[in-house]
Amino acid sequence: MSDEFHRIRRLPPYVFAEVNAAKAKARAEAEDIIDLGMGNPDSATPPHIVAKLVEAVQDPRTHRYSSSKGIPGLRRALAGYYERRFGVTLNPETEVIATLGSKEGLANLAAAITSPGDTILVPNPSYPIHQFGFIIAGASVRSVPATPDEDMLQALDRAVRHSVPKPTALIVNFPSNPTAYLADLDFYREIVVFCRRHGIWILSDLAYAEIYFGDRAPPSILQVEGAKDIAVEFTSLSKTYSMPGWRMGFAAGNPRLINALTRMKSYLDYGAFTPIQVAATAALNGPQDCVQEMRELYRERRDVLIKGLHAAGWEVPNPEGSMFAWAPIPPRYADLGSVEFSKLLLARAKVAVAPGIGFGEHGDGHVRIAFVENTQRLRQALRNIRGFLQVDNGSPAEPAFAGDVA
To answer: Which pLDDT score is estimated for 241?
Structure first.
């Protein structure tokens, strides 16, 4: 009898585990660790959403099984959001489904549409479920560049010409986790034309649609004419309304894909707890000032972090979207790789980050830094990082840092 089950054998060791273990050990020894590793929003859910949850949960009728597809009002609310935000019309009955966060939806759709040995195209680096949802389902994954440019388009063309069997699906994710790349509608148009020509499904992850810092909001791939013929898009309330633990997401788009996910979920769950769905409806239909406030909060944190890292001598690109900085490992540590550098940063600077290799082998030259602490804690992290980089470089650490990041 094998020591491991077949699907488990296809999953590599969890690469974040080493850093998580070191973090837990340090905290057990009463060390003050500033955790910028997990993309776990730290702000409270807006009060009007919490109030609606409390109101709904007091009605005993909401305590029964819900609908795995999502209550009708919630699906209509998501369709209303797409109409307002993107000018995209969705049929709430056939083109929208509620999911237990976008991660669950992605994994279950992968299981629904994948045959063993299928070739799936996934950006590398990318959020782990993009790859491993299909690997668990029995597919083979072919990596393509994560950049929304000619490099990805050329890689898609090579994949169609040289993959056996031909690719059946493509994942896109902009604003991207972990790289923070943004795509525009022109790029989406090229992707849609290509995939329609070759009969490739598109699964778009738009979880960070509302976290952007420039003048133009990130588009939806469903805005492209003909996209609904081949594309489905996943969104989430986790980041937009600071509701990560509520596990409320959606898939929208191609009716055939939505139907496949609906059938799969009908065997697996009864949907989110009804009061959560009612509160999610209130989030989408209610005042949206909280979304702008959330965006400004992340902008402030981004500005403090990037300015402070530059002052410390760590050149990190300034992200235009998402809640992450995708930070190249400083050159003198590049040979360590992302896991060992993350462990070193934890030990010397007391700052936890996510090793880039956890998002794919092409991420190993980077670490991901999340904007999940307040500015005071970020400044403390920056002082620690500056001290680590200067001492390790043979220069004395300076005692103060606040003036550089104010």
So the answer is: 96
Q: What is the C-alpha separation between 20 and 339, in angstroms, rounded? A: 11
- Lookup: tokens for 2: 């094998």
Q: Domain ends where: 258, 285, 312?
A: 285
Do residues 399 and 310 share a domain? yes
Handedness of CA 27, 178, 363, 123 (dihedral sign): positive
Percent of the chain with pLDDT over 90: 86
For the chain, the 3-state helix, strand and coil shares in percent, each to the nearest 5, are 50, 15, 35
Domain count, the chain: 2
Summarize pLDDT for 284-321 with one digit per residue, the tens: 999 999 999 999 999 999 999 999 999 999 999 999 99
**Global pTM?**
0.92
Beta sheet of 354-355, edge-to-edge order: 324-328, 366-370, 354-355
Indicate whether 1 belongs to any domain: no
- Whether residue 145 sits in one domain with residue 214: yes
In which domain, by residue range, is 237 found? 47-285
Give the residue from 87, 49, 69 showing the smallest Cα distance to 251.
69
Give the CB-side neighbour count of residue 298, counting CA atoms within 13 A: 32
